[in-house]
Amino acid sequence: MDSKYWDNIHRTSLANQSAEPSDFGLRAAARIKALGYRWLLDIGAGSGRDTKLFYDMGLDITALDISEIAISRVREVAPGVKTVLGDIADMDFPAGSFDCVYARLALQYFNDETVERIFGKIYDALADGGFLFIQNKSEKDWEYGIGTELERDMFLVPPESYATTHAIKFFTLDYLREKARRFKIIELGESAGDGRAYSNLVAMK
């Protein structure tokens, strides 16, 4: 991942992004509250809209993002959160560090080989019985198939909704199921909102 690329993305987009938590974040928060879990890793925290939701719940949060601008935004909206500046693909936390790992629209920018590696890192970082929450754009999203195909279900999409051309891997439910094969799948399904189509996973280690 290129930190300067993501700094440019956030520099132009943060002002236009909603400060309200996402629907997926709200659903994750309700489950986390019911479980009574506390230690959460938010990977690809971005604008911090969901990070703030978890922060306001009193969770102990570590927010990871490759963009300094995103990390600065997270510190503004959730000042008590521990922040880590770094690439998701290179994250290296002690085994069993977290009760929950949350990744909304974070894994879709990586190719299949890297996604596989990230799932392994998530598995290691979760405590036994810990929960994983993942949402990515699905193959039913309007951007699917636009641009140059880089690998199966991954396209170099022209700058329609971003500041520049960007690569997106669209996650089918079968793809999510295969990547989560080491986990117990609790929920696997699709949703739509803000004109987008998503695939969603809730799984337990």
Number of strands: 10
pLDDT below 50 for ≥5 consecutive residues: which ranges?
none
Structural class: alpha/beta
Number of helices: 6
Walk across the major sheet and give the strand order.
3-2-1-4-5-10-9
Search tags:
Rossmann fold; alpha/beta; 205 residues; 10 strands; three-stranded antiparallel beta sheet; single chain
Write the layout of secondary structure elements.
Layout: H1 3-13, H2 23-35, E1 39-43, H3 49-56, E2 60-65, H4 68-77, E3 82-85, E4 98-104, H5 112-125, E5 126-137, E6 148-151, E7 154-157, E8 166-169, H6 173-179, E9 184-193, E10 196-204
Summarize the structure.
The protein is 31% helix and 32% strand. It has 205 residues and is of the alpha/beta class. The two termini are 27 Å apart.
Describe this structure in words.
With 205 residues, the chain is an alpha/beta fold. It has one domain (3-139, 171-204): Vaccinia Virus protein VP39 (Rossmann fold). The protein is built from six helices and ten strands, in the order ααβαβαββαββββαββ. The chain is globular, with a radius of gyration of 16 Å. The protein starts with a helix and ends with a strand. The mean pLDDT is 91.
